[in-house]
Write a structure and sequence with these properties.
NADH_UbQ_OxRdtase_chain2; 2 domains; mainly alpha; 16 helices; transmembrane helix; about 0% strand
Length: about 325
């Protein structure tokens, strides 16, 4: 059970306040203030964990976000000289802030050095404000930046996770890969990226809940957990396959909507091909994690891990089976 300390609760409230200010503002300066409030609220949350590497990760995160904020401020005087470059500079700074490729170099090391709850916040909540600002910058001038960042993010996320054995780094590269799909969804409509982002948040939360409940930080710990009860195996299997976008699980439907928009709008087939190829790569290392707990047993181990809240874990995992209920819900409505 996650219990927030008073200072964590305070900074969590100001973090949400900063996101709200950045999303709802009509002024670039107020938007920048909201991003800064969000940043200054998240740094104490990062350093409040007992992990000895959290201070290092917080410093890395602060320096990168400070560079992104400085780039946003630099776009203001630039707008008086080169008006066309302003949107490009702002978009590049926001890509750096969310950790999308090719400016992703800081994201996996920061995620690796923090605890699971902070990592989940960094992979989901901290991306809301920059992505919402990105959606206002979609134009013919910036379309090449979106295409480049989306393709590179999807390929980097897929290829980078293949040789990883640390679960936090695997989830970080997974987040970079999904950022590629999100950037493509942004170019189509606001409702599409909202649906994709909410689905990704729900699925990632279910995966992180299982890994955090059992303190799994390495692939070897999944192998050790293979002698645990069947609910853990089933829940881990379903959530990872859903994160990979395998039908009929929850993660498949937002990807199907993005693919449908590509086909209907007649967008670049190269762009869509890169996204689909990267989806196969991510599904490979998700399957490697999931099948290891199913197929590889360790009966000679003397130590067994204690399953935390098995009923809650099973309930969380079956969120990914919710699309199977959609036909029943539609039948009840109509």
């Amino acid at each position: 059970m996650l219990i927030l300390k008073p200072h964590q609760l305070l900074f969590s409230l100001t973090l949400v306040m900063g996101i709200s200010i950045a999303v709802s503002s009509s002024s670039w300066f107020i938007m920048w203030m909201g991003l800064e409030l969000n940043l200054l609220s998240f740094i104490p949350i990062l350093t409040s964990s007992s992990n000895r590497y959290s201070a290092e990760s917080a410093l890395k995160y602060f320096l990168i976000q400070a560079l992104g904020s400085a780039s946003l401020l630099a776009a203001v005087p630039l707008s008086f000289i080169f008006h066309q470059l302003t949107a490009l500079v702002i978009l590049t700074a926001l890509i750096l802030k969310v950790g999308a490729a090719p400016l992703h170099f800081w994201f996996p090391p920061v995620v690796q050095g923090i605890q699971w709850p902070q990592a989940l916040t960094l992979m989901t909540v901290q991306k809301v404000a920059p992505i919402s600002v990105m959606s206002t910058l979609v134009s013919e001038t910036t379309s090449f930046i979106f295409l480049t960042a989306s393709i590179s993010s999807s390929l980097v996320g897929g290829l980078g996770g293949l040789n990883q054995t640390l679960t936090r780094k695997i989830m970080s590269y997974s987040s970079i890969n999904h950022m590629g799909w999100l950037l493509s969804a942004i170019t189509f409509s606001e409702s599409l990226w909202l649906i994709y982002f909410i689905s990704y948040t729900v699925i990632s939360s279910s995966v992180v809940f299982i890994l955090h409940s059992n303190q799994i930080f390495h692939m070897n710990q999944i192998l050790g957990a293979s002698i645990l009860s069947k609910p853990l195996k089933l829940s881990l299997f379903l959530t990872l396959l859903s994160l990979g976008g395998l039908p009929p699980l929850l993660g498949f439907f937002p990807k199907m909507m993005v693919i449908q928009e590509f086909i209907v709008s007649g967008a670049s087939i190269l762009w869509l091909s890169a996204l689909l190829f990267s989806a196969l790569l991510t599904l490979f290392f998700y399957l490697r994690m999931a099948l290891s707990s199913f197929l590889i047993s360790s009966p000679k181990m003397k130590m067994t891990l204690i399953l935390a809240n098995p009923n809650k874990i099973v309930a969380v995992s079956f969120i990914n089976m919710s699309p199977l209920l959609f036909p029943m819900i539609l039948a009840m409505i109509y």
